[in-house]
Design goal:
Structural class: alpha/beta
Bound molecules: adenosine-5'-triphosphate, zinc ion
Strand content: 15-25%
Radius of gyration: 29 Å
Number of strands: 31
Distance between the termini: 34 Å
CATH topology of the largest domain: Rossmann fold
Shape: globular
Number of domains: 5
Helix content: 25-40%
């Protein structure tokens, strides 16, 4: 049975007028007594169904949770992303809406006799268990007449949560003393005491953080407690989003370029013109102020505004500025929120308590009404595309919503995606260029350091003489530096010098990475970890050692080279704790550190006036990816990170170390010359038949059995072949770059095409036909316009 379609149910007489589109209901499904949750898509007077319709069992919501706009969007989204409509509908709601929550009825009109009767004199009542149909009807009539309101409160997500935490009464000296008395193999306890000594002013610290971040076990905490070294306490946390410190900024007098941008966008807001603007503004050209003043315009027009950012925790400054300007009218949706917090924000939007929503990818489904403006900052970011079903791109959804709401979309970036820039070239988007920095200074001076040169390769470590000198100078002048290395961990991998053996993950086809703080080898794909081997597991030689460089290693080198410098490291390993990103960036912003070292998470959006130097340890990490976007990603990363230097009064310098100094992506990034890069890269995409010249669809198959995976892939290829003309390019099946992940084999087929009228239908058929395969352990995914092919 095909399940990717709506099913018809009878509305029992008692629920007439109660059941409306956008509500969730419980219905019997299939044979037996199984009941499932469904969404009401449409209410009809008659049915063509042959046979006896089953009745709806009960309504879950008393008012619709999805608007007509969202219901319409779900049809389009399912079709566009080749996914089930039900998963699209679920994606639009905060995840807790899929779980249990309580409903409350609130009296608005406390004089109406019916309300008085219903409430029995109380201002609210909680709906527990099942209400009788008469009451449901009454509630609905009253709600329609605005005499009462209904609110949801999520169960198990009380406003205050209690958690176990650790604190200590000992001081630093006592802690170190206690540590020295422990047996050497009490590693977990030692780590615990070390941590406490280093973070005395931050106590108590929660169990979960100790476990996640430092691998300190519950048992170690308990032992330490028994020995009176620590105390276990309960902390009460208020559910309040962390990491936002509004930055009050007053409206600035715009530069000429900013004014021109604002004028064009505001005029589209006023005339309700669903036009798309591509704001291509160099780093530090003041795009934020353009966003803020256009949002203001939307609000003046009695409309709302939606603003997407790549990942909130990484761009706290942007969020702080929006909240600083518009205050309580803003809701923030970010991935760091707990389910409950997310739900709170969602409810504020639903209740129309807010007018501006800032959030990452999924915020594009925010239940805002009368949207007057949609902004996508750093529009080139890959994180706007979801990796799982439904594989949607937030930009596409934004453009769809803009049509429905009759409002403009602003795509902003210093390094637009090739797709967007090409659309601007064709006149589909309106191009607005901002070529000058706010401070009217030149873009920072960039030096490319050729790491193949003997003077660079001869030095021990990863810092060329040029980068060292520049760092020294920056420190001498009490300025700040940002150092980028796109690889976490201490050293990349372990290899045996005797037999060439590389230590790999048992579940995935990748090498394990050394993590110094854990003292373990770790898989970045599945999280598997194991002890560091003392000798080669293959040939038993002791000549097994580390290769490559990670952030932890560079941190060590910085400490050795510049012992007086204060270094902050920012990578996934130092930012596991909630609010950790914001904390590190605040410390850096307050100039409590001299050097910020990190992976690509430090590359974008940061605006610190004292940063005068940016150093890139190795520009080649993204370039060597086997992906058609490798050059584009490299150019974007280097341009963005370079743009962090010299944004205010002080002049900026950039040093890029590379083994490919002649590569156009690196050269163009060093001059921050987007337009030249764009032309060159378009030429290459044209030569190799890639987007934006061709559309792309990627079909991947995974199974634990490699033979079965291949067989299924060939069957799929045949299905595709019969729907394609000879102009289409069909590639594969071929193994993905990491052909085994978590014990599953991955194969992929790529279709590149220009105009294939039958392809869409065929892909939808494949989606439905392969449903049964899921039960046999196959994972089959169709990715429309993939972000990366690997
Ligand atoms: N009209 C203005 N007058 C004075 N200062 C301004 C003006 N507009 C922006 N600025 C300041 O200029 C700096 C850079 O602006 P902003 O951070 O918006 O740049 P951006 O274009 O977003 O750059 P990036 O792409 O690198 O993030 C900020 O510190 C901002 O406060
Ligand atoms: Zn693994």
């Amino acid at each position: 049975m095909q399940t990717n379609r709506p099913f018809e149910y009878l509305i029992p007489e008692t629920l007439t007028d109660v059941v409306v589109p956008g509500m969730r209901v419980e219905v019997p499904f299939g044979r037996g007594r199984r009941k499932i949750q469904g969404f009401v898509m449409r209410v009809k007077e008659t049915s063509d169904f042959q046979g006896k319709l089953k009745p709806i069992a009960r309504v879950i919501d008393l008012k619709p949770v999805l608007s007509d706009e969202m219901l319409k969007l779900s049809y389009w989204l399912a079709d566009r992303t080749y996914s089930f409509q039900i998963s699209c509908l679920q994606t639009m709601l905060p995840s807790v809406m899929r779980a249990k929550y309580k409903q409350y009825v609130v009296a608005i009109d406390e004089v109406d006799p019916e309300v008085v009767r219903l409430f029995n004199g109380k201002p609210t009542f909680e709906i527990t268990g099942q209400l009788d149909d008469e009451t449901i009807k009454l509630i609905n009539r009253l709600r329609r007449n605005n005499k009462i309101d209904i609110q949801y409160v999520v169960e198990n997500q009380a406003l205050q949560v209690k958690r176990q935490a650790v604190t200590t009464d000992l001081n630093v000296i006592q802690l170190h003393e206690a540590k020295s008395k422990l047996r050497a193999n009490a590693k977990s306890q030692i780590k615990l005491l070390e941590y406490l000594a280093d973070h005395l002013d931050e106590l108590p610290i929660e169990f979960s953080d100790l476990q996640k971040e430092f691998g300190v076990s519950r048992a170690a905490i308990k032992t330490a407690e028994k020995n009176d070294l620590v105390r276990v306490v309960e902390v009460t946390k208020l559910r309040k989003p962390v990491g936002i410190t509004p930055e009050q900024t007053t409206k600035m007098k715009l530069t000429e370029e900013q004014q021109a941008a604002v004028d064009q966008i505001n005029s589209a807001i006023e005339t309700e013109n669903p036009q798309t603007f591509l704001v291509e503004g160099v780093t530090g050209s003041g795009k934020t102020e353009v966003y803020l003043q256009t949002i203001e315009k939307a609000l003046q027009q009695e409309k709302t505004a939606l603003m997407l950012v790549p990942e909130i925790s990484l761009t706290p400054q942007m969020v702080n500025r929006v909240v600083g300007r518009f205050g309580d009218q803003v809701a923030v949706l970010h991935s760091g929120l707990s389910n409950g917090e997310r739900y709170d924000e969602w409810t504020r939007i639903e209740n129309r308590d807010v007018k501006v929503v800032v959030g990452a990818r999924s915020a594009v489904f925010a239940p805002l009404e009368h949207i007057g403006l949609i902004i996508i900052d750093e529009e080139h970011e890959g994180s706007y595309k979801q990796d799982d079903n439904p594989r949607y791109h937030a930009r596409d959804v934004a453009l769809w919503r803009a049509q429905v709401n009759k409002c403009p979309v602003v795509l902003g970036s210093a390094t637009p995606s090739l797709e967007s820039r090409a659309r601007a070239e064709k006149g589909v988007y309106q191009l607005i260029r901002m070529k000058k920095r706010i401070n009217n200074k030149n873009l920072p001076q960039v030096k490319i350091v050729d790491m193949r040169d003997s003077e660079n390769s001869a030095v021990k470590g990863d810092f060329s003489p040029v980068l060292r000198e520049n760092l020294q100078e920056t420190l001498d002048q009490h300025n700040q530096a940002i150092i980028l290395l796109n690889r976490r961990g201490y050293s990349s991998f372990m290899m045996c010098r005797e037999c060439g053996f590389v230590l790999k993950c048992p579940n995935c086809d990748v090498s394990l990475t050394y993590h110094k703080d854990l003292g373990k080898m770790k898989c970045h794909y599945c999280g598997h970890d194991e002890p560091v081997p003392q000798f080669c597991p293959n040939c038993k030689s002791k000549k097994i050692g580390f290769y490559g460089t990670g952030t932890q290693n560079i941190e060590q080198q910085l400490n050795d080279l510049f012992p007086q410098a204060r270094v902050l490291r920012m990578d996934v390993d130092t930012t596991r704790r909630k609010g950790a990103h914001a904390k590190i960036l605040k410390q850096f912003g307050d100039h409590k550190a001299d050097i910020l070292l990190g992976t690509q998470m430090i590359a974008k959006g940061l605006d610190f006036p004292d940063v005068t130097l940016v150093g890139v340890i190795n520009a080649d990490t993204t370039l060597s990816l086997a992906d058609f976007r490798a050059s584009e990603r490299t150019f974007q990363l280097l341009t963005q990170v370079s743009g962090r230097a010299g944004r205010a009064e002080k002049t900026g310098h950039v040093v890029i170390q590379t083994f490919n100094p002649d590569h156009y992506a690196i050269k163009d990034a060093s001059t921050q010359d987007y337009e030249t890069f764009f032309k060159q890269e378009m030429y290459i995409r044209h030569q190799s038949n890639y987007t934006p010249y061709y559309f792309t669809a990627l079909i991947s198959v995974a199974n634990q059995d490699e033979g079965k995976t291949l067989k299924q892939s060939y069957w799929l290829k045949k299905q595709l072949q019969t729907a394609l003309s000879k102009d289409a390019i069909l590639l594969g099946p071929s193994p993905t770059m990491i052909s085994r992940k978590q014990n599953k084999y991955y194969y992929q087929i790529i279709v590149k095409y220009k105009h294939e009228p039958k392809l869409h239908q065929r892909l939808l058929e494949i989606l439905n036909e392969t449903q049964a395969d899921a039960k046999n352990g196959f994972t089959i995914a169709i990715d429309n316009e993939p972000q990366h092919i690997d």
